[in-house]
Design brief:
The complex is a heterotetramer of chains A (about 375), B (about 350), C (about 170) and D (about 180). Helix content of chain A is about 70%, strand content about 0%. With about 375 residues, chain A is mainly alpha-helical. Chain A has a domain at about 120-370. Chain B is an alpha+beta fold and about 350 residues long. Chain B has one domain (about 45-355): Cytochrome-c3 Hydrogenase, chain B. The longest helix of chain B has 29 residues, at about 85-115. Chain C has one domain (about 20-140): NADH:ubiquinone oxidoreductase Nqo5 subunit (Beta Polymerase, domain 2). Chain C has helices at about 25-35, 60-70, 125-135; strands at about 40-45, 50-55, 75-85, 85-95, 100-110, 115, 140. In chain C, the strands form two sheets. Chain C has a five-stranded mixed β-sheet with strand order 1-2-5-4-3. Chain C has a two-stranded parallel sheet with strand order 6-7. Chain C is globular, with a radius of gyration of 17 Å. Chain D starts with a helix and ends in a 9-residue tail after the last helix. In chain D, the strands form two sheets. A three-stranded parallel β-sheet of chain D has the order 1-3-5. A two-stranded antiparallel sheet of chain D has the order 2-4. Chain D is mainly alpha-helical and about 180 residues long. Chain D is globular. Chain D folds into two domains: about 5-40, no CATH class; about 55-170, Rossmann fold. The chains are: A mainly alpha (about 375), B alpha+beta (about 350), C alpha/beta (about 170), D mainly alpha (about 180). Chains in contact: A-B, A-D, B-C, B-D, C-D.
Chain lengths: ~375, ~350, ~170, ~180
């Protein structure tokens, strides 16, 4: 009974409800018009139509789960910061639930603010930047299943897209383009420098990231998430490929632009980096998406290294997956709130001189494990 | 390409503008521009009587306002050559050293926030509150104290002032050790600080840099030791220096100075004699000039007052250490990256109130 | 941009050839008197470590260069300008790190032409302080690298610290 | 006459404005969303990270652990585009006046100004200075005045709570502006 069948059932029930109307009309109206409504009823009830809407409902379910997780992440981020910094964090907004409504209030407030487009800014780029940024992040989310039967599937027996991990990383890596576009098009010196820095940072951390992911593919022997996670049945990949897991986390911190590698929006030098000119809902999108990418990063780390939903079955599978994603996110936040920011050239030479060789060494370890036949 | 780190910028703590000429990421030319907070204090002082000027000098440098009003009172006492009772001297020195620790902690908070370490900002702010409470017990206000008077201090120290300050010093020494673990232990902090913004010994002396940046370049010159005023000769402490002269050296000098200040507070508070804490000063100032020189947490603060026999000073000239250190900013910035501007300028502990007067 | 004290020797600070045993005040007093017998007047010891001297406007730059090179006065602390009824007084406070001595050098200029030689070629630290004196009091410093307003906006017409400025 | 998309957008905008303002649809939508939007605007105030003088230190202390402003959802942003409160915390000199006016204009529309400390309210101890504008409200409309020189952190947080009450009182719908 995977997610697809569940959505298929719901849509089927809804369509039956509506078909009573069509068929009634078909009977009442004479001749060709009646025929027409009967055909509409048949078309609606056809398998193809229902499965299309079922997939749509699946996507909505996954997106809603992601948004709830993003709101949770923002709340955890601020509360955890509070605990590390000796103060409460959000407290009075949503008083009885510990300030959880604070980020909801932030989002709605940004939604209501006036939208300002700078006069000399390039209108198209200014508009397109956030859209690509948000779109690519949500697309990366589509292919990550939360459980064996809880992912975006297109048929009752299907277990997800064959190359889902590849697609997830592909979409995950589109973000630098949108940052460059929005940085350049908002016609501001700070955002230009911020945009260029972030592109340089992401490029230099993309390659070690993908090398470690390649080592996981090598051991798991398959490109899709379900294949990888099944391969981690008896032992999580984080244990044999510990070096790979550490390199992956560091690259993830750089990809998601969190504190030690927070350079594009460096508070102190570049006054917010490439989001300087964005106000109102566009800035809200940027802020939400940076946390969404945190969630996707956490999900990828759990799927590849921490054996996604493998765990004692007293807890349902998706909950296992989310618990591990939250733990990875908290580790990233811990680094975020305790380390100072690194300079641009230091970022690049860490990326090229330190992480690249480690990733290659990790690939060799994976190769030796494979040839020894342990995996 | 000229970048304008303009008046409204998180890195500039206060209102000044640093125009940098950048080619790629390295800085080719720098031009600090001050004057956004110029209130014409020297003109205001000429319209006020001697005691009315004390609250104005409090607002010169709001990070360490006690040292400036103390400097003003020293200068006027030199002008009127008034003998300050010993108890007032001891209370003043204890208060000044507490103000020095609070000012260095405020610097540490701003410096850590600039480098991205919000943890440092929060811890330094939290521990500064202890000394702010002590100074509030003394003078009644949090930031601009209006506490020294010409010829002594405004009120006596509260009853358990000695116990509280000893307890604060012990707490602070533990905290400084913790900070050193937090900062020196973090590799990223060292990467951002070592070898950045180097100022050689000759340059520092020639450019008129004073205070922690000068001692960080290896010059052993501390006004409390070399040109002692009030009761510093009777207290034993030593001037802290560091050979390198880069951002890390300035950070190191300030942390050691906080330890020294704790030592001074302990001695001053325990040796505090009983007796009068204030002598009434005449309202009419004599003809002639008065000169005061004090080791401000930011450098060498000086004041030169010319009296002309009326109630109001004829001319008040204030020497601000940061005004001269900023003019030397260009020599520290050339050749470094844009991201280093934050570390270098943060290392100077800018206080714009005293720069623009 | 500003000429960074090109004249000042960047090498090690060599000590002036002075007799041993005398305290620093007498030593500086004797050395200065030998160098500038005519123009240096009214030498007084204010208190321990602080001495005062008056000098003619003509010999100011010479005396500063002598102080810096021969007597080891490396640091200029403060340049203040005071306006009296019939004259301007420019007071230089110069420090010697070695012997912890502060020299208060006072020069006078007539009321109508307040121009003095700029010492920023000797000490680079004096650059901004001279600009500030020009900005607030209107004292012109000859061959100063870029003598313009520093604290007040560029289009400010008056010198606020003058006694006739009531604004 | 080539019909460009920009004209269409302007025309559609005009139509929507007309519909919302004249018909009851706008009023109805306002009735539904006015309280919710106002609650959101009230509870997440982003002041601009802009320190002038001693009140700036008290502003920094207000966000430090002892007087925690984060509890009310107050985060200091550093770009005027993302802030809705301009916190003026020091004397405004004549050299700074044009920059401050530009900063005020750069902020998106539902914005407020808090004058913190005597210097921002009336020039404070420097009222008779030749280079200080005596009071910020000479060139920027000010909503909240916080007394004190420097204003204590508790007073600043009390000022923010008063600002929240002010936002709650003059509630205006998003669609019809009534």
């Amino acid at each position: 009974m995977n997610l697809f069948q569940f959505c298929y059932g719901i849509i089927h029930w809804l369509v039956d409800l509506v078909n009573h109307l069509w068929y009634w009309l078909g009977d009442v109206l004479p001749g060709a018009l009646g025929e027409f409504f009967n055909d509409v009823g048949d078309l609606a009830a056809s398998h193809g139509n229902i499965s299309v809407f079922a997939i749509l409902l699946e996507v909505i379910v996954i997106v809603i789960i992601a948004l709830i997780n993003v709101l949770n992440f923002i709340w955890i981020d601020r509360k955890f910061m509070g605990r590390m910094f000796d103060f409460y964090g959000p407290y009075y907004v949503g008083y009885r639930i510990g300030g959880w409504l604070q980020n909801l209030a932030d989002g709605i407030k940004l939604f209501v603010k006036e939208i300002i487009v700078p006069k000399k800014a390039d209108k198209l780029g200014f508009l397109l930047g956030p859209i690509i940024f948000v779109g690519s992040s949500f697309l990366a989310l589509a292919t990550i299943p939360l459980g064996t039967r809880f992912g975006i599937e297109t048929s009752p027996t299907d277990t997800g897209v064959p190359g889902s991990a590849l697609i997830a990383f592909a979409f995950f890596a589109i973000a630098p383009f949108s940052i460059l576009i929005s940085g350049w098009s908002s016609n501001n010196k700070y955002s230009l420098i911020g945009g260029m820095r972030s592109a340089a940072q992401m490029m230099s951390y993309e390659i070690p990231l993908l090398l470690t992911v390649a080592s996981v593919f090598l051991i798991a022997g398959s490109f899709s998430f379900t294949g990888i996670i099944d391969a981690q049945e008896n032992i999580w990949f984080a244990i044999p490929l510990l070096l790979g897991f550490v390199v992956f986390l560091v690259c993830l911190v750089a990809e998601v632009e969190v504190q030690p590698f927070d350079l594009p929006e460096a508070e102190a030098e570049l006054v917010e980096g490439w989001t300087v000119e964005y106000g109102g809902m566009r800035f809200g999108l940027f802020m939400m998406t940076s946390y969404l990418r945190g969630y996707i990063g956490g999900a990828l780390a759990t799927a590849l290294f921490l054996g996604g939903w493998n765990g004692p079955h007293i807890i349902p599978e998706p909950i296992w997956f989310l618990i591990k994603a939250y733990i990875v996110f908290v580790i990233i936040e811990w680094a975020r709130w305790s380390l100072p920011r690194v300079r641009v050239d230091q970022i690049l030479n860490i990326g090229w001189k330190r992480l690249m060789p480690l990733a290659v060494v990790n690939l060799m370890i994976a190769a030796t494990f494979k040839t020894l036949g342990w995996f | 390409m000229w970048i304008n780190m303009g008046p409204q910028h998180p890195m500039t703590h206060g209102l000044w503008n640093l125009r940098i000429k950048v080619d790629g990421e390295t800085i080719v030319d720098a031009e600090p521009e001050v004057g956004y907070l110029h209130r014409g204090i020297e003109k205001l002082c000429e319209r006020r009587t001697y005691t009315q000027i004390i609250p104005i000098t409090d607002r010169l440098c709001y990070g360490s306002s006690l040292t400036w009003s103390h400097l003003y009172c020293l200068t006027v006492e030199d002008l009127m050559n008034i003998e300050v009772p010993p108890r007032a001297e001891y209370i003043r020195v204890a208060a000044i050293e507490m103000q020095r620790i609070a000012s260095h902690l405020m610097w540490l908070a701003a410096y850590a926030a600039d480098l991205g370490m919000l943890v440092g900002f929060i811890y330094a702010m939290r521990d500064r509150e202890i000394f702010i409470d002590l100074l509030q017990a003394l003078s009644g206000s949090r930031l601009t104290y209006n506490y020294p008077r010409i010829g002594g201090v405004a009120h006596d120290a509260p009853p358990n002032f000695v116990r509280d300050s000893l307890r604060a010093c012990d707490y602070m020494e533990g905290k400084i050790a913790e900070y050193e673990k937090l900062y020196d232990g973090s590799k990223v902090f060292m990467m951002r600080n070592e070898g950045v913004g180097v100022l050689s010994k000759e340059d520092a002396m020639n450019l008129g840099v004073t205070g922690p940046p000068l001692r960080a370049s290896g010059v052993k010159y501390d006004l409390r030791k070399d040109q002692p005023y009030s009761i510093y000769p009777e207290l034993d402490f030593e001037a802290v220096t560091h050979p390198d002269g880069d951002c890390y050296a300035r950070y190191r000098v300030r942390m050691e100075e906080m330890r020294e200040s704790c030592k001074i507070i302990r001695q001053a508070v325990q040796k505090m004699p009983q007796g009068k804490w204030r002598v009434l000063a005449p309202r009419i100032g004599p003809e002639g000039t008065g000169l005061g020189r004090v080791e401000d947490p930011r450098g060498e603060g000086m004041m030169y007052i010319v009296g002309n026999g009326t109630q109001r000073p004829y001319r008040v000239k204030i020497r601000s250490p940061i005004f001269v250190t900023v003019s030397a900013a260009k020599h520290m910035l050339l050749g470094y990256k844009v991201a280093d501007v934050v570390a270098i300028m943060g290392g100077l502990d800018m206080c714009i109130g005293e720069t623009d007067r | 941009m500003d000429k960074r004290g090109a004249g000042a020797p960047a090498g090690a600070i060599e000590r002036a050839p002075t007799t041993v045993g005398e305290n620093p005040e007498e030593r500086t007093f004797k050395a200065l008197l030998e160098a500038f017998p005519s123009t240096l007047t009214d030498f007084k010891k204010l208190r321990k470590g602080i001495v005062r001297a008056r000098i003619e406007r003509r010999d100011l730059l010479e005396c500063c260069r002598y102080l810096k090179d021969k007597l080891g006065f490396e640091h200029i602390s403060m340049i203040s300008a005071v306006e009296y009824e019939n004259r301007f007084e420019i007071v230089y406070h110069i420090t010697c790190y070695g012997s912890c001595l502060l020299l208060e050098l006072i020069t006078q200029t007539p009321k109508d032409d307040p121009t003095v030689e700029s010492v920023s070629s000797v000490w680079a630290g004096a650059n901004w302080q001279e600009r500030e004196s020009y900005d607030l009091m209107g004292i012109k410093f000859n061959n100063h690298p870029n003598l313009e307003r520093i604290l007040l906006p560029k289009d400010f017409m008056y010198h606020p610290l003058r006694k006739d400025f009531k604004g | 006459m080539m019909f460009r998309s920009r004209d269409f957008v302007k025309w559609a905008d005009g139509v929507f404005e007309g519909v919302f303002r004249r018909s009851s649809l706008g009023g109805g939508l306002d009735l539904l969303t006015k309280d919710f939007f106002n609650w959101a605007t009230r509870n997440s105030i982003y002041p601009l990270h802009f320190g002038i003088m001693c009140c700036a230190l008290e502003m920094a202390v207000a966000s430090a652990p002892r007087f925690d402003a984060q509890r009310f959802g107050i985060i200091y942003r550093s770009s005027p585009r993302q802030c809705d409160v301009l916190l003026v915390n020091g004397p405004v000199s004549k050299k700074l006046k044009p920059d401050l006016k530009r900063l005020y204009d750069q902020m998106p529309s539902p914005k407020w100004v808090v004058a913190m400390g005597e210097c921002a309210i009336s020039g404070g101890p420097f009222y008779d200075s030749y280079s200080i504008v005596p009071g910020v409200d000479q060139f920027i409309p000010v909503d909240i005045y916080i007394p004190g020189c420097p204003a204590r952190p508790e007073a600043l947080i009390d000022g923010f709570i008063k600002l929240q009450k002010l936002i709650k009182e003059n509630k205006r719908g998003l669609f019809t502006g009534k």
